[in-house]
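Before our next group meeting I need something from you. Please put the record directly below this note.
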Amino acid sequence: MQFKSVKYLRLRITPSGTVRVSAPWKTSWAEIENFVQQHQGWIKAKQAELAARPAPPVAEFMDGENHYLWGHAYALATHVK
């Protein structure tokens, strides 16, 4: 929950599924709670959509792979002597 210089209440769901609310400074807690209750269906649908997404692939690095930095290729080494 964050009070901000905004005109309307705003809801968003973070990639982890957390609900975030932005509200104008003079909004009462009762108004905010009512707003969130009215949008429970949307919140649950978005959280389910996020949970159903496949996890991003984990990068795997191998010895000897080339990685470029500022136009120069560098061979990856897992241990340096």
